[in-house]
Amino acid sequence: MAAFKDNIGRATVERLADAFRGAHPEFPRDAFVERATAGLDALELKARVDHVAAALVDALPGDFSVAAPIVSRAIGPTDYGMWEVWPVTMWVALAGIDDPDRALPLLAELTSHASAEFAIRPFIDAHLDRVSAELSQWVEHPDEHVRRLVSEGTRPLLPWAPRLAVAANEPGWAIRWLDALRDDPSSFVRRSVANHLNDLTKLDRDLAVATAQRWMARPSTEVEAVVRHGLRSLIKRGDTDALAVIGIDHTAPVEVVELRVHTPQVRLGDALELDVVVRNAGDAPATAVVDYAVHLQRANGRTSRKVFKLRSVRIDPGATVELRKRHVIAPVTVRRYYPGTHVVDVQCNGVVQASGAFELVVDDQTAPGARP
Fold it and tell me: Who contacts 202 (Cβ-Cβ below 8 Å, separation ≥6)?
């Protein structure tokens, strides 16, 4: 399985070079390719993006008002996607930071090829009022990619991105735009809104819950899904207020009556298999939100608990349901596994109600695999 970083290599650089030469005959194609590929293979993904962006700074005219139309002509007619255009968006952040009136519309154009969620953040820090005015217009943009840029680019905990200065003091500063996008017709946009709300749960739990409660005052199928996904971290922690927002009574008489671990020994790369039996002991239908957690061994002998979604199920009075899960434990580059006894527990409506264990056997962590 090829690494993501390998998608930005010499072939990608040459495709960009050809597009720029076609739009601007004076573009120094060969010099750009040489500069952009020098040392590229030794870099990780984000560093490759920045490296190619820096090469574009050298290759394109230094006057942003001259360079911006060249970029538009070069990229606009192509079907280039993330790997070619991500470095171009970062070039905008480098070369156009002092010219937001030209740079922001260019980012809106480029984001349909590759999300400009990283590139817009320096503009937010440097030109907050100007960017805010643009975002207020973009929430009604006909292109879903531009609308998503509003919610994704302003995320307070956007992965791989530095924190926004405004969000450090006011985590919910972008809620005004989330309000406009929470029931966006595009699921692509709504998922970004949910991820933004989930970020807020980690910085200002009360604000996140209050926002979700306000949204649920006028519920729809779309808004309910956004709220459920946006509160997922709190729900996994058993936060009773978050559960209440999605209509779950943590005091409902639903209980885990059995946990069966079918794989007492799991070899790294194989799967943990378990069954969970849940019963409604009450006299009215009730909903059970069932999650499971794996306590992963660390090098220092301690464990870290990682919660995974199992299922939400409506159970009739006196009835039981059986849920089955196959959880692959595969080698990945971002996590190292350690052999030994691992605990797995099951929680229902936020309360841990059953536990089991399995032995993890670790032979090799270098084989390609997917995050479990």
Answer: 157, 233
Burial of 323 (0-12, 13-18, 19+ CB in 10 A): middle
**Are 220 and 202 contacting, i.e. CB atoms less than 8 angstroms apart?**
no
Convert the pLDDT of each residue in 206-239 to its tens digit: 999 999 999 999 889 999 999 999 999 999 998 9
End-to-end CA distance of the chain: 16
Mean pLDDT of the chain: 94
Q: CB-based burial of residue 193 (10 Å sphere; 0-12 exposed, 13-18 middle, 19+ buried)?
A: buried
SS3 call for 220: coil
Q: Are 120 and 131 in contact (CB under 8 A)?
A: yes
Is residue 333's pLDDT more than 70?
A: no
By C-alpha distance, which of 132, 148, 136 is closest to 182?
Answer: 148
CB 256 within 8 A of CB 348: yes
124 pLDDT more than 70: yes
